[in-house]
Amino acid sequence: MDEKEGSGLNVLSSRLKKLENLYLRGNPFNDGIFPSLTGFSSLKCLDLSNNILTGSASIN
């Protein structure tokens, strides 16, 4: 994920405070997406399948 994609998600998270479902499957996102997702505090469902993710992410 490049800086432009990350800043776009940050803008979305600041405007969509009550978003509960986010489907981002089938994109070229890598592990760099995780910091950009922290602003979606109301998420109940996050689909990141079919991306370029490796390792693990902590869920709080």
Automatic annotation (TrEMBL):
Q: What sections of the protein cross the membrane? A: none
The cross-references to Pfam families, in alphabetical order and at most eight, read: LRR_1
- Which superkingdom, per the lineage? Eukaryota
Its protein name is Leucine-rich repeat-containing N-terminal plant-type domain-containing protein
Which source organism does the UniProt entry give? Salix viminalis (Common osier)
